[in-house]
Amino acid sequence: MMAAAVAAGGAPEVIAQLENAAKVLMAPPSMVNNEQRQHAEHIFLSFRKSKSPFAVCKHILETSKVDYVLFQAATAIMEAVVREWILLEKSSIESLRTFLLTYVLQRPNLQKYVREQILLAVAVIVKRGSLDKSIDCKSIFHEVSQLISSGNPTVQTLACSILTALLSEFSSSSKTSNIGLSMEFHGNCKRIFQVHRKIREDTDMAQDSLQCLAQLASLHGPVFPDEGSQVDYLAHFIEGLLNTVNGIEIEDSEAMGISSVFSNLITVFPRNVLTAIPNELFSSFVNCLTHLTCSFGRSAALEEVLDKDDMVYMEAYDKLLESWLTLVQDDKHFHKGFFTQHAVQVFNSYIQCHLAAPDGTRNLTANGVASREEEEISELQEDDRDQFSDQLASVGMLGRIAAEHCIPLLTSLLEDRVTRLHGQLQRHQQQLLASPGSGSIDNKVLDDLYEDIHWLILVTGYLLANDTQGETPLIPPEVMEYSIKHSTEVDINTTLQILGSPGEKASSIPGYNRTDSVIRLLSAILRVSEVESRAIRADLTHLLSPQMGKDIVWFLKRWAKTYLLVDEKLYDQISLPFNTAFGADTEGSQWIVGYLLEKVISNLAVWSSEQDLANDTVQLLVTLVERRERANLVIQCENWWNLAKQFARRSPPLHFLSSSVQRTLMKALVLGGFAHMDTDTKQQYWTEVLQPLQQRFLNVINQENFQQICQEEEVKQEITATLEALCGIAEATQIDNVAILFNFLMDFLTNCIGLMEVYKNTPETVNLIIEVFVEVAHKQICYLGESKAMNLYEACLTLLQVYSKNNLGRQRIDVTAEEDQYQDLLLIMELLTNLLSKEFIDFSDTDEVFRGHEPGQAANRSVSAADVVLYGVNLVLPLMSQDLLKFPSLCNQYYKLITFICEIFPEKIPQLPEDLFKSLMYSLELGMSSMSSEVCQLCLEALTPLAEQCAKAQETDSSLFLATRHFLKMVFDMLVLQKHNTEMTTAAGEAFYTLVCLHQAEYSELVETLLSSQQDPVIYQRLADAFNKLTASSTPPSLDRKQKMAFLKSLEEFMANVGGLLCVK
Amino acid sequence: MADDLDFETGDAGASATFPMQCSALRKNGFVVLKGRPCKIVEMSTSKTGKHGHAKVHLVGIDIFTGKKYEDICPSTHNMDVPNIKRNGLPGKGRCPRLTKIWGAPVSFAEPLPRGGVCWAWLRGPPLALQLIGIQDGYLSLLQDSGDVREDLRLPEGDLGKEIEQKYDCGEEILITVLSAMTEEAAVAIKAMAK
C-alpha cells in the first residue's frame, strides 16, 4: 500500500498520512485507543520497509514540519541504504550522504533526536561504504576537520556529533582499522577541547563533545602507523585534557564524561606508551587523576546523604577507582613507590568519607549539618560489601601499595573504635542496671560506631586478602613484603601476646609498638569480635549490630582462607611473624582455630534469628574444615565434638537455624569428618554425626502409623531436616570422600523414593526429595565408576517413575500460577542435565575411588544414562506446555537439556516413540522461531549433530530425515529472508551447511523458488550471483571440515550483500 | 523439645500448638496469627536502619475461613504453630518390598493387588470421609470405625453450595476434614472412586 503510493509519486499524500499517524502516536493515551495506536505504528513500520524510499524521504525532510516524521524519514533512509546497498549506484549514495550532511548543517535548530538520527544514517553509510571500499573515509574526516576549524561553536558541536556517531559505529565493529584516520586529524583533538570549553554552558552540547572526546581517548589499533605516533597522539591528547580540566570548575553533568575520558586512556593505551610521554606530563596526569578521584568521592558521599536518584558522581567515582586498579596493577612499568603518595591520598579520602565526624565527614551535608535517617531496609537490599565490591577492591589495592601508611592507619582507627564501643556498651549496661526498663536508649552514638567499624572492617578485608573463586588464595605480595621488611624491628613474643589477648587493650601491653603491623591489624578486629562476645555474655545482645557481627565473621573467613596455616611452598619468601603466629604446627594457629570455633558456636546460638549473619558464620566454619590441614586442628577442639553432637540431636538452639544454614552446617560437619584421626576416633565421630541421622530417619518412617502422622508438623519437620541434611552431605563431596558419602547417601535415596509417595500431595517435600537427587548427581556423578553410576541411574529412574505416576493427568493450566509452582519440573530437568554432564566431565577410573570398599560388580546391567534421561524427557515433555516456556528459568533449562541430548545421543533420537519425537522436533522449531536468541542459538546447535546423524545413517525415509528437511527450509528462511541477530550467524551457518549437505536437491529447489519469485531482473541477477558465489567453494557440498569453513566464510559475505535485501515488502 | 518427640503414640495427647522461633518458620508451613491457625503464604524480613535487628513479616491464610492475616515480629520471637490434622484411616494391606526396605511392616488402606510395581500400591493416607447425609446444616460423615459423626457444619459459601448440590444430585462424594486448635471443618470435596 505504502510502497504503491511511493511508486505513484504521491509524496504529499504520504506525508499527510505519516503526519496524521505521528499525531496519533504523540497524543496522550486518553485521546486515542489501542487500535488507532497500532494502526499508526503499522503505518510507520511499513513506510520504513518500502522499496527505494529515498526520493520521498528527501521530500519529507525538506517539507515536513513534524519532528517525529523527520525522524522516521531518517530511519527509513538508513535502513533502506543498508538493505539495497548492492542495487544502488555509488554516485547516488554519495549524493545522498552529502544531502544529509548539508541538511543538518543548514538547520541548526533541528531537534536533537532528529539531528542524531540523521547523523547516524550518515555514519552507517560511511561504515557500509568502507566495507567494500566504495567510500573514502579520508574525505569525510577531512570535511569534519574543516567543520571543527570553522570557529563557529554550533558548527563545531555538530562536527563533534558526527564524529561521535562515526566513532561509535566503528568502535562496535571489528573493522576499526578501516577507519583510516589521518594523522593530521589528531590535531583536531585540541580544538575539540577548546570547543568543549566554549560550549560547556549548554549541557547537551557539552555532553556531545565529551562523548566525542571519550571515543577519541580510546583510539587504538592500526589507526596508528607506529608506536611513536601513538605516543605523540597521547601526549597531545593529555595536554589538551589537562588544560581543560585544570582550568574549569567541573559541572555535575561533566563528571561522568570526564571520568570516561580518563578511564579510556588508562584502559586502552599500553603501559609503555603511557610511560613514554614526557615525565612531567605524566606526573600532571596522575596528579589530576588523584585530585579528581578524591573530589568525585566527596561529591558521591554528598549525593548519598541527599539520597539523590541520579548518582552521577558515584558513577564517575566508580569509573575512576576502577582506572586506578588498572593503572597500578601492572607495576613493572613504573618505579617502585611511584604511586604511593597518590594512593595515600585516595585511600585517606575514601576512609574520611566513610567515617563519622570528627574524623570523617559521613552523613554531613555540604554545609556541615549531620543528617541521619532510620530507613526500613528489606532483605533484598544488597550488602555494602557486595554493592561496593569494585570500589573496595580498588581501595584495598591502593591500601596495599601504601601499606606503610594505610595498615597502621586502619589499626589505630579500629583500636580507637573498639575502646569507645566497649565504653559505650558499659555505660548502657550501667544505665540498664540502675533503672531497668527505663524506656529506650538513644542509639545514635552506638550506630555511628557500628557504621565506622563496618567500613573499617570492609576496607581491611579487601586490603589484606583477595576475593578468590576456586583458586588457592595467596597473601598479597605487598602485604608480605611489608611484614618482612619490618620483621627485624619486631618482637615476636609481644606480637603473639597482642594476638592472643583480644580482651585487653592493645596499648596496655608493654612494648606494643614493636609488633608486626599486619598481625596487629588482625588483632584489632579480634578485639572488635571480643567486645561483641562479651556484650553477648552480659545480655546486651539487643544493643549489638547484627551487621557488625556479619562483618566480623566475613572478615575472619576471608582472613582464614588466606593466612591461616600459610603454605610455605606457595611463596618465595615468608614473613617470620606470619609463620610463627599462624604457620603449621604452631601454638598460634591452634589458638586461633579454637577462638574462631568458639565464635562460630556462640554466633549460631545467639544469632540464629539473623539469617545472613548465621549464614556468614557457617561459611566461616566451612572454611575452617574444607582444607585438611585446618580440619586437623579443628577436630582437636572439644567444642567441635559438642557442636556435632548437638546438631545430631536437633535440639535448640541449632534447630532454630534456617534450613540453608543447617544444610551448610551439615556440610561442614561432614568435611570435618575427613580430617586426620585414628580409626577408633573416626568411627566414633561418624557414629555421632551420621548415624543419628540415619537412626532418627528410620525411626520415623518405620512407625506403624507413619502414613497417618506423616502430615503432622513435627513429623514433617523431622523429614525436612533429614532431607536438608542429605543435601548438605552431598555438598560436602570431594574426590577423597566420595566413596563413603555415596554409599551412605544411596541407602537414603531408596527410602526417599518411598517418601515421594507418602508426600505426593505436599509439593514442598516432593521438591526437597528431588533436590537431594539433584545434589547427589551434581556433586558425585563425575566421580562414579560404571557400576556405581548404574546404581544412581537406577535410583533416578525409579524416582522418575514414581514422579510420573503421581503427575499423570495432573492439570497444570493455572494462568495465575507463579514460577515457583513449577519448581519440581525445573528440578527434574536439572537432575537430567546433571546426569548427562558425566558425558562431558568424568573423573572416574572404573570405580577406582571405591576400591577397597566393595568388590567391583559386573557392569552388565541394562540401564544407561541415555535410558534414564530419555525416560525423563519422555516424562517432562508432555508437561512442558507452551505456557510454561514463558517462564525464563524453565525455558532455558528445558532447551539446555534437549540440546544436550541431541549433542550427546543423536543416535537415540530416531528411536524415540513417535509422540515424543514429534514434540521434540516441535520444541526445536518453536525454539528457533519464537524464543529468545539464546534459546534459538541452542536449537541451532542441536541441528548440526542431528543432521550428521542422518548423514551417517543414510536412511532417506526416516522421520528424522524428513524433519531435517523441514529445518533446512527454516534455517534458509532465517538466514536469507528474516532479520536475525548477527551473533547467531555462526551457529546458523554450521547447521545450514550440514543440512545443505544432507538435502542438496531441496536446497537447489529453495534457491530456484526464491529466484523465480523475483520480478526485478537486477535483483534476480544479483541474488543469483550471490547464491553461486556462496556455494562455489564447496561444490559438491560434503561434511568435510575444510569445505565447511570455506562455506562459512562465503556465508559472511553473502549475508552482507543479501542480508535484508529480501525483507522488502 | 524435638528431642522428646514420641512417635509411637502418634497424635494422641498432642497439644494444640507448639512454639517455634520466628526465624525457623517456613513458607507453606503453619503459624497462629491473631489467634487463628494460618498457612504461611508470604514471609520476608527487614530491619530498621543498617544496624537494626531482623523483623519477620508474615502473611498467612486462615486454614478454615481463607481470611488473610498479617503480622510483623522480631525474628527472635517464638510463634505458636498449630498442630494440623487431616482425618485418615488405618491401613489394611502390607507391602513386602517396602517392608524389606524400611525394616518394618508398612501398611495401607487398600488391599494390595497381585504383581505390578510395588510403588503403585503405596498410596498416601485417604484424606476424606464419605458423605452420607446433610441435616439441619450439619454433615453426616461415615467414619472408618463404621460410626457416623454428625457434628460437622456444612461449610458456608461456594464449597457448602457445591456439597449440597452434589449430594442432592445423588453423587457419591468424600469430604476432607481438617482439624486444628479445637476447631474442625470440611475444607474440600472429591468424587468417590468407583
Question: What's the end-to-end separation of chain B, in Å?
Answer: 44 Å
Strand segment tally of chain A: 1
Number of helices of chain B: 2
How is the main sheet of chain A built? none
Distance separating the two termini of chain A: 10 Å
Average the pLDDT over all residues of chain B and give the rounded result: 70
Summarize the largest interface: chains and residue counts.
A-B, 64 and 59 residues
Provide the low-confidence segments of chain B as ranges.
Answer: 1-13, 88-127
Give the overall silhouette of chain B: elongated
| SS content category of chain A | mainly alpha
Taking Cα atoms only, what radius of gyration of chain B do you get, to the nearest Å? Answer: 21 Å
Percentage of residues in strands of chain A: under 5%
Helix content of chain B: under 10%
Q: pLDDT below 50 for ≥5 consecutive residues: which ranges of chain A?
A: 1-8, 172-185, 853-859
Average pLDDT number of chain A: 85
**Radius of gyration from the alpha-carbon trace of chain A, in angstroms:** 35 Å
Beta-strand percent range of chain B: 35-45%
Order of helices and strands of chain B: EEEEEEEEHEEEEHEE
Oligomer: heterodimer
What does this structure look like?
The complex is a heterodimer of chains A (1065) and B (194). Chain A is built from 47 helices and one strand. Helices cover 69% and strands 0% of the residues of chain A. Chain A is mostly helical. Chain A starts with a helix and ends in a 7-residue tail after the last helix. Chain B is mainly β and 194 residues long. Chain B is elongated, with a radius of gyration of 21 Å. Chains A and B meet through β1, α21, α25, α32 and α33 of A and β3, β7, α1 and β9 of B. β1 of chain A pairs antiparallel with β3 (36-48) of chain B.
